[in-house]
Fold these 2 entries.
Entry 1:
Amino acid sequence: MGLRKTCTATIMLSSGRTGALGVLERLWTKFEEGGGLMSVYEKLMQIQKTIKVPKTRKNDFGNFNFRNAEDIYKAFKKMEEQYRVLLVLNDEVISVNGCSYIKATATLIDTETGESIAASANAKEPQAAKAKMDESQTSGSASSYARKYALSGLFLLDDSVDVDSNQYIDTGEPATDAQVKIITDLCVKHNVNQAELYKKHKVKGRPTGAQAGVILNIFKKNFGDD
């Protein structure tokens, strides 16, 4: 589709006297109530386990279903109050080897502790705008694409068509660094031979995004908590 993506993840913790005092006050309140605060990691884990973002949008040209960034954000909004977190999306333009990329960062902020965790994804801006699209529309398209993959990386949403669907289409787009790392970590966690897993799914070298999505789906179905 003319846009390339990469994905990275970062962990951040807010600092400062005011923020620290606020966290201590909330911790003390929770202690007096006989409870404790979940960390931002625990909250994210719960969100990753429960968030559902079905692919309800139809691409008639490619004959497949997909989701976009707005769909993911809408699904997250239902959990915002429950887990006392908020989501912030930011874009910036970066240059890599003379090419312009939109770097989107999705940051999950714990409103109780001030902790935050973020995932970023880059989408390359096409050097030439597509027909009927001006420069602002081209940048907007790259931004939407990057945001979608930043959110997908944060919430562990694969971007393949469902593994059980006959609409499964592999476009050949390579898997993100985040997807590859997650697969490796899951193989170690569950004592799965990664080489054999790749061989079974006909992965040669680096998996495609679709292959990674299928593998992640299998982990979710077999182990449930990933």
Entry 2:
Amino acid sequence: MGGLWGAMGGLWGALGGLWGAMGGLWGALGGLWGGSGGLWGAMGDYGGAMGGLWGAMGVMGWNRGVMGGNGRLWGCIGGVMGGGWAVPDPPPIAGDTSRGSHCPFMDLGGDPPFVQRAPPEVQEDVTPPETGTAPSPIPIGDIGTGAYSSPIAPSPPAPLDWLMELMETPKEAPPERALEDNLPDGAFPYTALLESRLAALRSTHAYRVFTAVRRRAEAPPLALGGAPQRPLQLWCSNDYLGMSRHPAVLRAARAALSAHGLGSGGTRNLSGTSPVHEALELSLAQLHQQPQALLFGSCFSANDTGLGTLLRVLPGCEVFSDAGNHASIIQGILRSGAPKRLFRHNDPEHLGELLARSPPGTPKIVAFESVHSMDGSIAPLSELCDVAHAHGALTFVDEVHAVGLYGARGAGIAERDRVLHKVDIVAGTLGKAVGAVGGYLAGPAPLVDAVRSLGAGFIFTTSLPPAVAAGALAALRVLAGAEGRALRRALQRHARYLRELLRDRRLPVRACASHIVPLPVGDALAAQRLTQVLLQHHGLYVQAVNYPTVPRGEELLRLVPTPHHSPAMMENLAGERGAPPGSSCSSCRRPLHWALMSDWERRHFQGEAVPVGA
């Protein structure tokens, strides 16, 4: 396969052409780009003439790999500029060690103050080669054909016994270390301050203790957890429809995992964009009938970065935020420094009053959630959008707890209410009904492009793994079809049934029309004890929601029945809680949250109201 350029030496070959090895302008013996001391040559094998683009390819033969003699990028460039098209390496010069340097700045002369020479064992995690022994190149396989051969012999596939053993092995106590160990006397007491803050959380029962569970993908909503391990029923998962273990989702994720590997490899701008990412963004844009969509690592980041970036870009922009908004929206507003106004939760009239005080020409954004994450209330989305637009404000709607759960295709409350066109910016998640992880924004092209180009939380973050993106794509396809509609109907039926059961037990379940079933408690300690009893004595994992997720005094149990919870499971949950909790608790006489209950809830608790479905 020597070809015209190979066997004959080529027009620029060894016979002394313009770029020839014997003294061409860029020749190997000292030209600026030369192979033996020039800027590229000084980087070791990077600039050798054998790294030439055509020489490395065997003159169009692909026998040495696309990138040159040693497969290095600079070898390709250095060969084209220095060694010509098909010029062989010049013979080594006795005593010449310039090729051994890996830093061009060291070979330019002198010792710059910012550079220190170090032996090989310091520069790399390798042992120095023996004198007179050249290091062996690492085989890189045939890049041209896509094959890959590792220099390390692959280990045979092994079962995941080590992982199971790791999960079941008792955790060793970590070594003790204080922040002040490396500080002089008189330094700030970091440890004491942090411990005092944590002690304050414990004293108010707001300190968070995680419960480790092993979800059973083959049998949702079951899991293993507790100490010792025992079967559990999950009642607090945000995997609302069980899509994380859907066969189509798992197949897509496995295929992408085999094709692309575990991670994405970089930020979106640095090799972290794959066709899977682009396909997912297109699918999300189409779902919400928006021109563009943009993926984030989480919806917290989407809200924080998206809203914060827009508020900074729009000069003098004011933001009008629902009083019940999620922490991610609040964080984005605070970080932007924009003037903010709070309107009462889901109150279009109060929003209109606040907007009327803002000058007509001032840019404005109204931000709210379509389904509230904790109390389960559904916003009057159409009315809020109408009020915002009447005063020249854009709408930023968080559909995190609605995507996949409402609407004919699962686009959320805006689709259910047929007002997709009224939403200017929509934020959604892949980590709840979709069953994956990640978040996104969708909206007009200039808006999305501004966040893509200016949002630090997007620019400097590694993109989602392709396997996650592929699984999310598969989940969206399922949710947009007949199976997705059947799952949504089952979810709503189960939520209504659980509310009826709890009300029949005279428990003050909060009335709402969403899939979330909040049970107010109103006291952090009582909520904590309730969850402990349910978990330890009944195998029911119900999570207490305390401050700062909800305001102090509004602590609650957040119940989420899924399509996979059976009626018997729901009856068991309501029946266990219907029994008197014990003399140490006053809930059986008057709830601790009595002052927070509505008149309807009080009448219902006293037996004056007729149990009805939500």
